[in-house]
Write a structure and sequence with these properties.
The protein is an alpha+beta fold and 278 residues long. The protein has one domain: Jelly Rolls (Sandwich), CATH 2.60.120. It has seven helices and 13 strands. Strands 1, 2, 3, 4, 5, 7, 10, 12 and 13 form a nine-stranded mixed β-sheet that branches. Strand 8 and strand 9 form a beta hairpin. Helix 1 packs across helix 3 and helix 2 crosses helix 3. The chain is globular and about 50 Å long.
């Protein structure tokens, strides 16, 4: 399984990016247009949030999905053991700590603009029959969508021996169209190939990892397939270090038809129930 590292500024960037997504479900973008200093600033400001007791003032309420999700709230689909993580869902319309609002809005905006361009690259590569079957163009699906979210994740140090089977993020597929993940503060992300073998995904601090979600798989009739991935537990001295990551999950507007029988809203709510947060 070879996830390609693609130079965003290269003349063949779109071709190489889509080839990697088609063959592995993942691609890594270098020389991308997101200012790296924005990511570093966002990581620092959100670190302070997770290290404070103020986070408990922002606990999410069902069925809304904005706010703070305490440690071990979420489990991967079909798993009984919860993940070793806490996280915050930032939506432009939702609650957010004032001290992180500006940087979160900037990250959200920059990443969403990039995502719209990447979705156009993806659509351009689709066979005509599949392209014509889309209910609307891919980049239009996310236009003004209230469901696109920036998830800020904190995987705390493993100060205690985890229970059997407990990992930072168990094997899963993303729900959405595509995910943009600016490099995390530590390695651990792995993707599974068609033979069941796991492969580490690049963690270059200046890169963005992009992967296919189940909604893109559904609306492209599996031309692009989502890939199972996970975040493994570190060992040795690395187990005493927090890991932070900040993926943007690109979601269509709720009324968008992903197939002849299912809207994005119906599919999203089904999946959120399966992982226990709806």
């Amino acid at each position: 399984m070879k996830v390609l590292s693609v130079d965003f500024t290269a003349s063949n960037a779109a071709e190489q990016f889509c080839l990697s997504l088609k063959e592995t479900g993942f691609a890594v973008l270098n020389n991308h247009p997101i200012p790296v200093n924005l990511l570093y600033r966002a990581q620092e400001e959100w670190k302070n949030f997770f290290y404070s007791n103020a986070k408990h003032d922002y606990v999410y309420q069902k069925p809304a999905q904005d706010g703070y999700f305490p440690f071990r709230t979420e489990s991967a689909k079909d798993r009984k053991v919860s993940d070793l993580k806490e996280f915050f869902h930032y939506y432009p319309w939702g609650k957010v700590p004032e001290e992180t609002k500006e940087i979160s809005t900037l990250m959200f905006t920059h990443l969403k603009i990039l995502a719209a361009e990447l979705l156009q690259w993806i659509e351009n590569t689709l066979p005509e029959m599949i392209k014509n079957s889309l209910s609307i163009p891919l980049k239009n699906m996310i236009s003004d969508s209230p469901n696109t979210l920036l998830r800020i994740l904190h995987y705390p140090p493993l100060t205690d021996v985890p229970e059997d089977g407990a990992v930072r993020a168990a094997a899963h597929e993303d729900i959405n169209l595509i995910t943009l993940l600016p490099a995390a503060t530590a390695p651990g992300l792995q993707a599974k190939d068609l033979h069941g073998k796991w492969h580490a995904v690049d963690c270059n601090p200046n890169s963005i990892v992009v992967n296919v979600g189940d909604m893109l798989q559904l609306c492209t009739q599996s031309y692009y397939k989502s890939t199972t991935h996970r975040v493994v537990n570190p060992s040795g001295a690395d187990a005493n270090v927090s890991r932070f990551s900040m993926p943007l999950f690109l979601h269509p507007n709720g009324g968008v038809l992903l197939s002849e029988t299912q809207t994005a809203s119906e599919y999203l709510h089904q999946r959120l129930r399966e992982i226990g947060i709806y």
